[in-house]
Write a structure and sequence with these properties.
The protein has 346 residues and is an alpha/beta fold. It has two domains: 226 residues, 3-Layer(aba) Sandwich (D-Maltodextrin-Binding Protein, domain 2); 92 residues, Periplasmic binding protein-like II (D-Maltodextrin-Binding Protein, domain 2, 3-Layer(aba) Sandwich). 39% of the residues lie in helices and 15% in strands. The chain is globular, with a radius of gyration of 20 Å.
Length: 346
């Protein structure tokens, strides 16, 4: 299936950047419930709440912390929350399932690249004999099925012409259970995201990285909202997006403090491990041609590996891009520490 013509992506970005920011309305401070994951892909959300950055923009955000993308989608489906953070692959699969979500903000991201997947890794245990991805054939691998780690693993195998069915997958949905499973020999290797890869490496003696990242996908975490919520409460959405931009910059500049904030929400966080793990993650909230290209690539891979036969989504239509554009135009100070985006000729 042909990919969209990326010559028009730049035009799309330029168009939304011309939208002026609407003035804030003095309507009190609405309370907003948001579901987020217990991993570093959501770190700016923890920071934004702890440092009062959402309240600074007129929105009181309350967090519901869960383990997986499936938990996030379920909370959104049940209308337990108005905002749902999730990975690109989780979001796209939800959209294919008919969920009325749109992207309002970008959390974990590198806007300069379309293949930033360093937070993802494959870790093997001592004496497993696994030196390369090819050595995983016939082995037991622990990961959270139907989550981003699973999609990543499928992409890693596909690039090497390996079959997913040739590997025994042990479904480990709670990331803290990965280290015990590896240490006790229940699996030969695990696949996960940060901080859990670093946690496994620190907790399981002589475990080691078989592959980190590799440019298979861009591991992006997005903030989403129901389309009716966006239509009815645009000022609230603006507050969330502005607070998120401020929180992303604070996280970039104060990573150790951000991890300490995270540890107050997520019990048993090992701070020395967490402070190592966070170095692998970028928090760039900009929407760029590279980001849209990464979404397109993720959509292609989902249709190839998971949702064969489904109709392709129009990626640009999955964003409420005006909110991102408003914040970038109104608050350039939240972006001035980020590297410039390269012009694209595509």
């Amino acid at each position: 299936m042909e990919r969209p013509d990326f010559r028009f992506i730049g035009l799309f970005i330029c168009a939304v950047l011309t939208i002026a920011a609407a003035p804030a309305a003095a309507q009190g401070t609405p309370t907003v419930d948001a579901v987020i994951g217990n991993n570093f892909g959501h770190l700016p959300m923890f920071v934004g709440v702890a440092k009062g950055l959402f309240k600074q923009y007129g929105t009181d955000v309350r967090l519901k912390v869960v383990n997986t993308g499936s938990d996030m989608v379920n909370a959104m489906q049940k209308r337990e929350v108005q905002i749902g953070d999730m990975s690109v692959t989780t979001f796209l699969k939800a959209r294919h399932g008919g969920e009325p979500f749109k992207v309002i903000g970008i959390i974990m991201n590198d806007a300069t690249r379309d293949n930033a997947d360093e937070p993802l890794a494959i870790v093997a245990r001592k004496d497993s004999g696994i030196k390369t991805v090819e050595d995983l054939k016939g082995r037991r691998v622990g990961l959270a099925k139907a989550q981003t780690s699973d999609e990543y693993f499928k992409m890693v195998l596909a690039r090497r012409n390996m079959k997913y069915d040739d590997i025994t997958i042990e479904n480990i949905m709670a990331p803290p259970a990965l280290a015990p499973a590896l240490q006790e020999g229940k699996v030969d290797a695990v696949v996960s995201w940060e901080p859990y890869n670093t946690s496994v490496l620190e907790q399981v003696p002589e475990s080691y990285v078989v592959l980190r990242g590799g440019g298979h996908l861009s591991y992006i975490m997005v903030a989403t909202a129901h389309e009716p919520t966006i239509a009815v409460s645009p000022q609230m959405i603006r507050g969330v997006v502005a607070g998120l931009a401020a929180a992303a910059q604070y996280t970039r500049k104060n990573r150790n403090e951000a991890v300490e904030i995270f540890a107050k929400w997520v019990p048993n966080t090992d701070l020395p491990i967490a402070k190592k793990a966070v170095q692998y993650i970028s928090y760039d909230p900009r929407l760029s041609p590279a980001v849209l290209k990464a979404f397109d690539a993720a959509e292609d891979d989902i249709l190839k590996n998971t949702l064969q036969g489904e109709k392709r989504l129009n990626v640009a239509e999955q964003f409420s891009a005006a909110f991102l554009a408003e914040v970038e135009k109104s608050h350039p100070e939240y972006f001035d520490d980020l590297p410039p985006l390269k012009a694209t000729s595509n």
